[in-house]
């Protein structure tokens, strides 16, 4: 299998505009993310997919690979356009605002497909257990619930499941927005119309569930810093130092 990573990158993020061009250590956030993905050694090629000339030039001028795309509502739609003419079997979508992603969780996603002899899985992603009440209730943390085989039942910014039976302990999981697609599934995804649940929650992987597709979730212990706000950026700067 030829495996590539693509990092979707918007300049005008709604909650924190230009966050990918903020300085993190000695580089910008997007350049840091790109180099960290390259350094894993897991991929045949790594690309940034963007509609911003500023981000495109930032990557290319630093020796990286970037693809210009049109404007899209979701990162997966952007990646689908970027990979149409790229020869590959598996596409890993790494979020541009997750600069500290490590090798092991990416390898776990790739292994899902290497072990899928019948090629039944179209999409895999990551989840991590949440324990702090503040983190569980934070709408910036997308929660996910799965069935007994690890396939997603639903994603939400709300607290799911609702803990009504207080005598029973329930686990909460945060969805980490790193996806691994079979290329043909990704291209199919991009042709599907957004449905009400995805539009309401602003969570792109809900589109798969609304069309009856399966998403395999792999639990990881990886703890990174997703940069959604200026406060997150300060946390990331402390971490990198």
Question: Main attributes?
Answer:
single chain; alpha/beta; 241 residues; 7-stranded mixed sheet; two-stranded antiparallel sheet
Give the overall average pLDDT: 91
Tell me the span between the first and last alpha carbons.
37 Å
Radius of gyration, CA atoms, in whole angstroms:
17 Å
What about the largest sheet? 7 strands, mixed
In total, the number of strands is: 11
How many helical stretches?
Answer: 9
Find the structural class using helix and strand composition: alpha/beta
Helix content: 25-40%
The string of secondary-structure elements, in order, is: EEEHEHEHEHEHEEEHHHEH
Strand order of the largest sheet: 5-4-1-6-10-7-11
Strand content: 15-25%
Report the principal-axis shape. globular
Model regions low in confidence, pLDDT < 50 over at least 5 residues: none
Function: Activates KDO (a required 8-carbon sugar) for incorporation into bacterial lipopolysaccharide in Gram-negative bacteria.
Pathway: Nucleotide-sugar biosynthesis; CMP-3-deoxy-D-manno-octulosonate biosynthesis; CMP-3-deoxy-D-manno-octulosonate from 3-deoxy-D-manno-octulosonate and CTP: step 1/1
Catalytic activity: 3-deoxy-alpha-D-manno-oct-2-ulosonate + CTP = CMP-3-deoxy-beta-D-manno-octulosonate + diphosphate
Family: Belongs to the KdsB family.
Describe the 3D structure:
It is a single chain. This protein is α/β, with parallel strands linked by helices. It is 31% helix and 23% strand. The protein has 9 helices and 11 strands. The strands form 3 sheets. It has a 7-stranded mixed β-sheet, with helices on both faces. A two-stranded antiparallel sheet has the order 2-3. A two-stranded antiparallel ribbon has the order 8-9. Strand 2 (23-24) and strand 3 (27-28) form a beta hairpin. The longest helix is centred in the middle third of the chain and has 12 residues, at 103-114. It is globular, with a radius of gyration of 17 Å. The chain starts with a strand and ends with a helix. The mean pLDDT is 91.
């Amino acid at each position: 299998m030829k495996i590539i990573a693509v990092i979707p990158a918007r300049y005008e993020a709604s909650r924190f505009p230009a966050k990918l061009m903020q300085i993190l250590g000695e580089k910008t956030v997007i350049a840091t993310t790109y180099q960290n993905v390259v350094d894993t050694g897991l991929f045949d090629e790594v690309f940034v997919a963007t509609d911003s000339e500023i981000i495109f030039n930032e990557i290319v001028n630093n020796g990286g690979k970037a693809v210009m795309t049109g404007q899209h509502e979701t990162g997966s739609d952007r990646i689908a356009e970027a990979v149409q003419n790229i020869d590959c079997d598996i596409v890993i979508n790494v979020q541009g605002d997750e600069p500290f992603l490590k090798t092991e969780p990416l390898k776990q996603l790739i292994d899902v497909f290497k072990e899928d002899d019948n090629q039944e899985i179209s999409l895999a992603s990551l989840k991590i257990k949440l324990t702090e009440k503040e983190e569980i209730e934070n709408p910036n943390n997308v929660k996910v619930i799965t069935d007994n085989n690890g396939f997603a039942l639903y994603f939400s910014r709300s607290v799911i499941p609702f803990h009504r039976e207080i005598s029973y302990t329930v686990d909460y999981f945060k969805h980490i927005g790193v996806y691994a697609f079979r290329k043909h599934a990704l291209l199919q995804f991009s042709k599907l119309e957004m449905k009400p649940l995805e539009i309401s929650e602003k969570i792109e992987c809900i589109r798969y569930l609304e069309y009856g597709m399966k998403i395999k979730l792999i639990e990881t212990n990886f703890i990174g810093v997703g940069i959604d706000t200026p406060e997150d950026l300060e946390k990331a700067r402390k971490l990198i130092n």
